[in-house]
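FORM 7B: Structural annotation worksheet

SECTION A. Query
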Amino acid sequence: MIPTDEAPRPAAVLVPLVPREGGLHMLLTQRQPHLRRHGGQVAFPGGRMDETDSGPIAAALRETEEETGILPGFVEPLGFLDTYLTSTNYRVMPVVGLLRPGFTVTPQQEEVADVFEVPLAFLMNPQHHERHSRAWQGRQRHYYAMPWQGRYIWGATAGMIRNLYALLYERS
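SECTION B. Predicted structure
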């Protein structure tokens, strides 16, 4: 449960889109299983904003380079998704960016177990947006999950993907 007396901590993630011959893919990371927080989870590259970051784009690009080795010059920021408030009290600004050809991936070994891609067509298909729930901290929590080839994309990551889907496909 989010503490009500504490302001959410600002964070930013990159929602990286990769043009491939068969269509766009989304690049994701798998966190190392030994990490104390969110170990083994699938995530976007990103994290807490530093005071030295000029804004969410700078934070997302810095964190992406730190976690994946992808240099900022290979990322063309396209825009933002809605701010996402996590259950761990982070106010995350998702930055959508297009990865230009020629980038290389070098995962930061202490934090990132793997970097992989999922076809955007799979993630934008609502048939793959499963609703799950579990008890956590004394209450039932509901969340989206998008299992893909043995990977369990869920929680905040799946929620932000779902926000992208809503932006692109749902009419108000």
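SECTION C. Observations
The chain has a mean pLDDT of 91. The chain has one domain: 9-169.

SECTION D. Sign-off
Analyst initials: ____
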